[in-house]
Amino acid sequence: MLKRYIERFSWVDFLLKLFQVLALAAIVIGIFNTLSVARYSSDQWVTLIFAGLAQGSIYALIALGYTLVYGILLMINFAHGDVYMAGAFTSVFLADSFALSGFLASHPVLAILILLLVAVTVSMVLNVIVERVAYRPLRGAPRLVPLITAIGASFTIEYTFRGLYGAEFHAYPTVPALSGIINIAGYEIPRVQIVVLVAAVVLMLGLYFFVERTKIGKAMRAVSEDKEVARLMGINVDKVIMITFAVGGALAGAAGVFNGLFRPQGVFFFMGFIPGIKAFTAAVLGGIGNVPGAMVGGLFLGVFEAVGPNLILEGLGIPAVNQLRDAFAFTLLVIILIFRPQGIFGERLAEKKA
Amino acid sequence: MSKRLFAVLSVLMVAGMILTACGPKAATFECTDAIGCVDIAPDEPIHIAYMLTISGATAFLGEDSSGAIEIAIDDRGGKLLGHDILLTGEDSGCSAEGGQTAATKVAADPTIVGVIGTNCSSAATAALDTISAAGLVMLSPSNTAPALTIEGQTWKPGYYRICHTDLFQGAVAAEFAYNELGARTAATIHDGSPYADQLQQVFAKRFIELGGKVTFQGAVNVGDTDMRTILTTVASDSPDVLYFPIFEPEGDFIVAQSSEIAGLENTTLMGADGLLADSFPENAGPNVVGMYLSGPYVTGAAYDEFLAKWDAKFGGVPPSGFHAFAYDGTNILLDAIEKVAVVDEDGTVHIGRQALRDSISALGSYTGLTGKLDCTDKDFGELGTSHGDCATGGALGVFQITEAELNGAWPPAAVYTPGE
Questions:
Q1: Quick one: chain B helix, strand, coil %, rounded to 5?
Q2: B220 to chain A: closest CA residue
């Protein structure tokens, strides 16, 4: 038994295991130290967690767009963050005029629905155009080729919108109906965070049922299993791919408006870049190509980003923790991928598509 | 080369020499300047350039400065020594990369005599080597990082700044917080840029000297949108004042999210001139009401006249607080050119580059919109010798943002000026 073990021993595996143990130990020690100092009250932790959940639900909505496209085409649509920007940036002007005319205060639900409709339409149409112009002509080309055109599409969208709307920063107005605080078990949570979280979860559940229960969803799953066989079965593959991009774009547009409600500032042409990268991370974290994985990955990343620097890094005595937040989020990604290379939920078709 | 072609070329060359020699040549100018001259033919314009941030988040700073430069040129009827003044611009952005790119472009054009720029200290730090090596002078309307004029630090010959440095601004902010607001504890947040980092250090140093306690000095990244984490850390000590001398949109996020964090209810928010923009109150939202901003403060009849010119030319008021420095800087540059220029009979102008630098460096007392300016070398005690630091510490104030600014009024009223 021992002999067999020694024969199979490999330094790489040993170091990986050692790294896992050290990473876990660092996290546990960090949490323990921070909590034992009791610098932050439980109110403050709850504030951070809910802000993280709201942020995470926005990551999750964007991540779904990455994961749907990857599931079908096995490509990363790097322009997706900019599709999100397009919706958010377009509706900010409408939102401002709604606020100015008082419509936002008098009919908040209707106003937000109109904003959503505009953002969703813009993002959806844009994503379909990107697919038609930048990806469809390259179908069947080596996998690296659409990746490069995706980066090109990303820059094109960014600078087109800069040309259209200018380089200045814009801010969504605050919605009077959404400001205020909800009391949950003695903790005060801003109402807008709860609304964004719930709305995002409803959209995600809607998407899940769309993919699992409808005929088009079935066609999408068939195309993702095998494009050729799906075509032989009479499925219009190009149409299904177009619908996939449309659904992904729509979710990104909705995320743009939710982001504007939850965190109104900083709407400009480059705003999609960082959330796009983060959402991609969330999709990989959850297991790329997997719909529930993207949802869980997004929420997980949002909460970890919000809580992690204070909870873990500060306990380890690391200075300037807030500047390390992004580094921390990506270190987390590395650690999780060492434990589970296929992501939290795994890629169901990994063996065939790898 | 064939013999015939060689012969033709030789003839042409000799003919060219004869023609040149026969031309009007009343007074031969010979450039004796250590780093070269700019020669401007009678029908050519005198070319100055600006390197400002004219796109992106800090575009308001560039707009503010470039408008003032144009007004300064208009005041002279667009002419200097009988030549048209040509103003061209490069976008230096608010980053090291932008400063380097703009400097490279400006340095490649030998007709440029001097530069007004940059807005951001980070851009200037990266641009200085190139600009100085090209023999140019650069006068900044809004670089506030102290190191830029200190010998042995970032300073390079040819660099001048018209605005006050953070040594003044940070100290004024700290004195205001301690003496006027009665604050005894303070926290600071910077964004890793030389401007914000040095400013908060000066603030913290002065605040401690006065007897206050600094509870936390932290930083965020440019591009961060979620400030709740760092605000929670700040809130755990509930300081009296939170000083965050950063820019939009990070400053907007801090202001907007500050009301969500338990423990910040009694903390006064305080920013610096990076947030002194007409778009800031609207973008940051209702939490800005009651917060303070430190920044340039210019008054006087000449300044009112300047504002009237601005309103006539562009409409409204300048979008930030550095226009008066840009105006003074442009005038100093144009005056110096006028002073050192050697004009031939036919109107050709020769400007010695070192002579231009010497002329500005010798400017001991100049009265501009922003008060008295003194560009000579100064002794900054333990910091070392400073070169070309023209500001004398006036023209600074602390402003308070009220409901009126939230509803679009600009600029806010000054509630404190040093020496009051």
A1: 40, 20, 40
A2: A323
Tokens of B3: 């013999």
Mutate to test the interface with A, among B217, B226, B234, B258 (most CBs of A within 10 A): B226
Bridge-based pairing of strands B185-190 and B213-219 is: parallel
Residue B286: cis peptide before it, omega within 30 degrees of 0 = no
| Domain enclosing residue A215, as ranges | 50-272
Q: Say yes or no: A41 contacts chain B, CB-CB below 8 A.
A: yes
Q: Chain B within 8 Å of A314 (Cβ-Cβ)?
A: yes
Indicate if the pLDDT at residue A88 is higher than 50. yes
Inter-chain touch A40–B236, beta carbons under 8 Å: yes
* B192 has a chain A CB within 8 A of its CB: yes
pLDDT tens-digit readout, B246-282: 988 899 999 988 988 888 889 999 999 888 888 888 8
Asked whether residue A184 is assigned to any structural domain, the reply reads yes
pTM higher than 0.90: no
Strand partners, B243: B188, B270
| Prediction ipTM score | 0.74
Question: Bridge partners of B327?
Answer: none
Task: State how far the Cα of B268 lies from the Cα of A233, in Å rounded to an integer.
Answer: 67
pLDDT at B211 over 90: yes
One of 3.40.50.2300, 3.40.47.10, 3.30.190.20, 3.40.190.10 is the CATH number of B167-297+397-416, namely 3.40.50.2300
DSSP string, B274-303: GG--TTHHHHH-GGGTT-EEEEE---SHHH
pLDDT computed for residue A265 by the predictor: 83
CB contact under 8 A, A325 and B221: yes
Residue B112, token pair as written in the block = 């440029």
Residue of B nearest to A266 (CA): B249
State whether B229 and A310 contact (CB < 8 Å).
yes
Rounded to a whole number, what is the distance in Å from the CA of A59 to chain B's nearest CA?
13
